[in-house]
Amino acid sequence: MPKSLPKPAADTNPVAIPTKQRAVYDALRAEIMGGRLQPGEVLVIDALAKRFQVSIIPVREALRQLQSERLVEIRAHTGVRVTPVDVSALVEIFALLGALETASAIHALPRMTEVDLAELDAILHTLETTAISGDTAGFEQANRQFHLLPCRIAGFTRAEQGLQSILAEWERLHRLAFQGTQPPSPEQANKDHRAIVRAFRQGDVEKLTQVIQRHNATALSHYQKLMK
């Protein structure tokens, strides 16, 4: 990990250049998700500012963003620490995933256009090709895109933010608490993904709700068995 922020390359598109806050956020998030920064570890803002060679302002902003994803805790008088991994939150996480995904999908249904359906099809194709090739990281990324898209179509920005936060918490929990365990079958997951797309195309609210709930219940059951 470099000790200072990367210098932006000469680019005519300023949007492509990451801000200092984004660079600090990306670096810390990667270290938390990867386990380099351990659960419970204390983060000192002044030390982080010195490490990344920035002022404390972008560090504070990055930490607030990480707090919104439940990756760090910011407490008055006690400072900042990496959030502990809570395996007991498993049921709550999947309940919230199911609720947010279902609500977003139902409200996205009447707004769904052919362009939106084509985007879902494209993501589904990526899910299927990454499942076949064994590209776990690619599958996870496509899976996240698949489940977030209905939020944007529905215009549910709060649901999207909540879903992103819960997915981040789940991704970290999965990596640290279930490392080395067998994940649910991606082939079975993709059967559900295909059924979701089919329900969107048919405008079938009941089937859509049914498949999303089953999709999350199957994953929850899989990880609960691993905890026994």
UniProtKB/TrEMBL annotation:
Residues 18-85 form the HTH gntR-type domain. InterPro entries: GntR_C, TF_FadR/GntR_C, Tscrpt_reg_HTH_GntR, WH-like_DNA-bd_sf, WH_DNA-bd_sf. This is GntR family transcriptional regulator. The keyword Cell inner membrane does not apply. SUPFAM superfamilies: GntR ligand-binding domain-like, Winged helix' DNA-binding domain. It comes from Prosthecobacter algae. Gene3D superfamilies: GntR ligand-binding domain-like, Winged helix-like DNA-binding domain superfamily/Winged helix DNA-binding domain. Keywords: DNA-binding, Transcription, Transcription regulation. CDD domains: WHTH_GntR. PROSITE patterns: HTH_GNTR (PS50949). The keyword Transcription regulation applies.
